[in-house]
Amino acid sequence: MSEELSHDPLSLDDEQVQAAAPRVRALTLQRLELIWRQAELNLDSEAGGADPRWAEIGLRVLREESRMYRLDKTPPPKEEEEDLYTQGVDRKALVLEQLETLASSLRDEAS
Questions:
Q1: Given its phi and psi angles, is residue 70 left (phi above 0), alpha (psi -120 to 50 degrees) or beta?
Q2: Cα dihedral sign for 81, 85, 88, 89?
Q3: Under 8 Å CB-to-CB from 44, ≥6 apart: which residues?
Q4: Which helix (H) or strand (E) holds 14?
Q5: Within 13 Å of residue 56, how many CA atoms lie on the same side as its CB?
Q6: What pLDDT score does 25 carry?
Q7: Can you state the angle between helices 52-68 and 14-42, rounded to 10 degrees?
Q8: C-alpha angle 52/57/62, rounded to 5°?
Q9: DSSP secondary structure string for all residues of 54-98
Q10: In the chain, where are the structural domains located?
Q11: What is the pLDDT averaged over residues 96-106?
Q12: CA 101 to chain centre
């Protein structure tokens, strides 16, 4: 049975999926944009009234595109912030030191 599966022309292994991912992502985005254009046309109240079904389709397209661009994910911390954590820097003390420096320079300007 496993020999039959290995000769299946419709099979995809993980390497093939990974290699095709950029192309499939671009193709998916292109198709989503086509659907969005249709939704946009059908939401134009001047062209005959907005159809709420197209509004739902438009929201789904936006949601999918947002996920493709990972807009629903929190961006990773910047390198300098990571360095502070890995070096064991006390961030509170660092902020207090910066505030004291700022307050000192403001006192000097006021004098």
A1: left
A2: positive
A3: 50
A4: helix 14-42
A5: 3
A6: 94
A7: 150
A8: 125
A9: HHHHHHHHHHHHHHHTTTTSPPPPPHHHHHHHHTT--HHHHHHHH
A10: 13-75, 76-111
A11: 88
A12: 38
Question: Would you call 86 exposed, middle or buried from its count of C-beta atoms within 10 A (0-12, 13-18, 19+)?
Answer: exposed
- What is the Cα–Cα distance from 69 to 76, expressed in whole angstroms? 14
Which two three-digit tokens encode residue 59? 């929201």
For residues 67 and 89, give the distance between their C-alpha atoms in angstroms, rounded to a whole number.
35
Evaluate if residue 1 carries a pLDDT over 50: no
pLDDT band at 59 (very low <50, low <70, confident <90, very high): very high
d(CA 81, CA 103): 24
Region 35-40 average pLDDT = 92
Measured between alpha carbons, how far is 89 from 80 in angstroms, rounded to an integer? 11
Residue type, 31: R
